[in-house]
Fold this sequence. Notes:
- By secondary structure, the protein is α/β, with parallel strands linked by helices.
- It is built from 18 helices and 19 strands.
- A hairpin with a 2-residue loop joins strand 6 and strand 7.
- It is globular, with a radius of gyration of 22 Å.
- The relative contact order is 0.10.
Amino acid sequence: MKIALVEPPWAEVYGSYKSAAKIGNCFPPLGLIYIASVLEKNNHSVKIIDSEIEELDLDGTVNEIRKFKADIVGITATTPIFHVAKKLAKKIKNELKLPVIIGGPHITVMPEETMKEEIFDYGVYGEGEETFLELVNSLENKKRLDDIMGIIFRKNGKIVINKPRPFNQKLDDLPIPNRKLLKIDKYLWSVPEKGIVKFTTIMGSRGCPFDCIFCSQRTMFGTKIRFRSIKNIIEEIEYITNNLGIKHFQFIDDTLTLNKERLKEMCNLILQKKLDITWEGWTRANTVDEETLRLMKRAGFVRVSFGIESGNPHILKVIKKGVELDDITRAYKLAKKVGLETRGSVIIGNPDETKKTLWDTLKFIRKLKYCDQIYLNIATPYPGTKLYDYAINNEKGMRLLTRDFSEYRRYGDAVVEVNDLSSKDLSRYQKIGFLMFYLTPGRIYYNLKRAGFKAGFKNALAFVRSVF
């Protein structure tokens, strides 16, 4: 079969912050590439359409599907872009008369509600590689769907949710994702000392054992972490550098330094093979030490990102972050000591938040002198999280303003109020927070020079457009 897999356009969900989002969030859709590669391995023909990076609106996306002469279309969607996925599916049904499969995080956390939209013929929830393949094979061969784990479909006018598929315990068995299905030259990233270069995402593990209330990753990938072998990861890196000319890698693991011995094994193999690469990733502030960071740096690691979330101890406990402010300060100091660029993620408008606790956060990140860049988010209660439960039940001071998921964005607008903070207050404090953090002499100088003038100017222009 000929299968088109689509990442819908998403920039609009960032509102006035669209310019900055286009620079900082255009990641290759690794989940789709994995599914595509499994399909190709089993003799299907696949086209991936990343509408945002290819600058396609819905009409343009449908035209690409038409030119490919697809037999079936798969669309992935998170909650904020689910409304876009619905519009796209409707156009596909009306203009091309093709069956549409919906997958991704949104249907995984809200399966029945998602399939109430009759524009979707089938749904895939949870990890999609094996499920999508089995579904496509059954449709091609006109076999019954009742025993396919992880799918949702209609039978006699009723929605049927088959039992979930167990998480894949043998990640090494997945094929190396075929990135040639993407327009790889369009995925550009600002890298310290390198400027703007081609990059790709890579996965070393799935699953997260932590219990942060704002995250639904546990629903998508489970609470037990599953690792690929280091040998398997290095083989993928070597293939990419030798065949695609990409030498910078963004690890999308939830906690990169969770298993330090395994990470050290990877670093030592990179050094042993003299791989000319750079890489980066996210981790937790209480899982790093100087020895490990130094080895990572020697092996090409250039940037570490930590989840800060709040500068108030009580709020950190409420959101179950599991770190202390001293952990955060120490982690940034260590990272800068070994020569790494540093980023952090912050959330304002958490349960129990007040103007006082919010100001604690803004003052904390401003004084966090070893943090170079920040993502400052407004708390958004996505389905599948404890935060969502608090919001819909008006607990811990939270008041949910709408259940229209098209409004669920982390930048520019707020869909919650909490205690003495209105939605307008949260939007205003987000702008104030960005200005307080970035408008310091040291950060202005660093961020203009860090990756060369071209990258510095481009990033600064996007920041000004977004905040002002």
